[in-house]
Write a structure and sequence with these properties.
heterodimer, A: alpha+beta, Jelly Rolls, CBS-domain, Beta Polymerase, domain 2, 4 domains, 4-stranded antiparallel beta sheet, 22 strands, globular, B: 237 residues, alpha/beta, 5-stranded mixed beta sheet, 10 helices
Chain lengths: 629, 237
Amino acid sequence: MSIEIQDIITFVSAYEPFDSLSAEDVAAMCGQIEVSYFQAQSEILEHGASIDALYMIRSGSVEVFRRTGELYNRLESGDVFGQMSILLNGRVRYPVRAIEDTLIYRIPAEKFFDLCDRIADFSDYFEVNEHSTLQQEVQSQNDNNDMTSVRVRDITQHDPAYLGADATVGECAKKMTEHNVSSIVVFDQVKEDLDGINSVSLPIGIVTDRDLRVRVLAEGLSFDTPLRDVMSTDLITLVHDAYVYEAKLLMLRHNVHHLPLVKHDKVIGIVALNDIVQYESQSSLLLVRGILLQETVEGLAELSAQVASVMVRMQKEGANSHMIGNAMSVIGRTFKQRLLQLAEEKLGPPPVPYCFLALGSMAREEQLLVTDQDNAMILSQDYRAADHGEYFKQLANFVCDGLDACGYTYCDGDIMASNPKWRLTLKEWKEQFSQWIEKPNPQALLNASIFFDLDGVDGKVAWAEQLTRFIVGKAKKNPAFLAALSRNAMNRTPPLGFFKDFVLEKDGRQRFSLNLKRRGTAPMVDVIRVHALAEGSLSQNSFDRLDDLAQSSLLPEGKTAEISDALEYLSMIRIRQQVAAVEAGEDADNTVEPEMLSSKERRGLKEAFQVLSSAQKFLKFRYTAHQKG
Amino acid sequence: MALLPYQVIPNDWDEFYSEQVQESLLESLDTFYHQPLLDPQQTIGATDFVALDIETTGLNAQQDDIVSIGLVPFDHQRIYLAKAKHWVVSSHRLTPESVMVHGITHTDVAQAPSLKSVLPEIMESLQGKQVVVHYRYMEREFMRTAVAELCQQNFLFPVIDTLEIEARYLRENQTLMARFMNKQLPSLRLLYARERYHLPAYENHNALVDALATAELLQAQIANHQLTKKPVRALWY
């Protein structure tokens, strides 16, 4: 039985959110408190340290800092802190320092999670509503990173292009091209003033590249159509001093890629998703430059040790899985490109043109650590095996050996350019894909699914695009193929009964663990691929594919957002596990030991696996129902 | 071995403990003395403490009774409330005055177990830990007297006294002139000592709350006077 200290109970229950708890809950919680005294100016929480409790200030006061050292908040008696850190990964995100002599009540994380689980008012206070775990988690990833200290106006081009609502789409396209922008703001009437922009009213709409494509070209509208008829009117604007992450959240929430920045009722610029992506990818630029400077395979292999640290840094800075996957893929592509350049220096220029292909995760820009190489080549129609075969054999071997040396291990299934089966002309590739698509054999497709994510890395990359268009055009029209692909996508089921019949795999170290890639992200990517092929999407990246699907009516309303959140969550847990392994000096892999997860993470995973399971069921219903018999 | 008289403590704790082990003792007392004393080099920062506080029917250990005991385990960084303990024990010497002080009434005491019946658990909670009190002449003398009356055995242990630490640092910080004039130190009572470290005042006093208050005070003293590297034995009384 735990003791009761009335003084602590009275104090704690006087403050939110504990005032919403029952007397029994408060008493039980207070019995578990640990008390700590901190002298003025001493560190209470250091960035990156592990944290296993919610902190409540009994007396004194503290300052909370951003990682940049900027003051974030000042808290005093009765305030709590540390919830963000325990909710995320049990690492301190915001360092805290005592500014007066301070007495702290530490409420154990287990107790905190237990109360969050049971009491809605309590979890609402911490915004950890059961039903939006994924969204909350995904959003809170955006907190406390560099993006919280950089303002969106600093990465935005000012003086946006604008037109009146009566201007035509032709004028609009012309103006956007002149200004080299992807969007234009539309005013009811344009009244030029000294600043050169309408200052009396807010714009009434916006027209983006996408609008021109979807609403004008695809609809076959005339170039004389006034902007009034095609613009997006439910304008979502952002105040000019918002932070970058706020822009990102707003874009995510409303699924828009352009936000006008407003200062004193005046649009001063438009921030585009591209601006943010560009700003975020800078951390990997240095490594990419380094790769291009290497003169030997040994030099490249040495540099490849830095790949892991780029990922660690990005994760610490709060990048999402899309950004990390993108950066890691760019790095992987750069290794390939440099190896091809080195090979051509050694072997001489290619006798006929070729295109080097990335397959699988790199093509989807979803590469993480521990990845094998999957690649292939498209050869020119002028290719003659007798004359050119030896050159391309050596070229492919050089690149594949080099990639292996750089940590991109050989592919078990021999899906590599060094395998003559996968060095084909465009015509031969089309025949190969036709065979897969028109005479679908689930077993053959199992090994071939990786070919359906492909991207040109070097050489005649236009051939890769041609091939993608060919595949997408064919796949769409072949329900039997989609059905076979769907059946394969249902092979790997998620571990649903997370606590009870949590399906574990024995890893090399004979410990029970769950493979997050095999049981989570990979099957999810499979599901998304089927839909994307059915819809005729040319995108390769899973999130881009989902964006395309969201525009179609293929999936029920809200389904793509749910799948996107789940994929993001699964990917981030994978990334966090890999980062933790790298930091501990261990080999990163794709497994997670359930007991190493917080109950919060377990709950998030459970929810993500539910989403995957229902997505698989929908696949069955959508593509295989009419294929029986 | 004979009982050490009231307020007399051993000159050499190691010797005293090994002597007690030789005696035929109560089982729980025997276990208590079998726990080795802290290593001479052990530092404050590496030590497990237990704060001890009692409420009594009066101030004289030879006449008055213990009515409640509070124990709070801690170290220099954390105080573990989940492992804290609190007992009210029976007494025939409750006076209206003492009831005013600690609020423990005849009714509470009537339903309470005897001190004798809870002593083994108290000893078990203290053994192997460094006991911390605020004013050793209360806690240690009352415990000593109670055990001596119950079973004619010595029950003594070295303590860290937060009142003594406070007095020491206040004296050090006094000006030479103040010392020369034998000027009085500020109040050393728990409440006032805590105020100097900006620790909050507690409203409802009992042995448990005061043990917690003592633990917090030692944490504050350790932080403010940089005591973590100091050997524990340098603070023994």
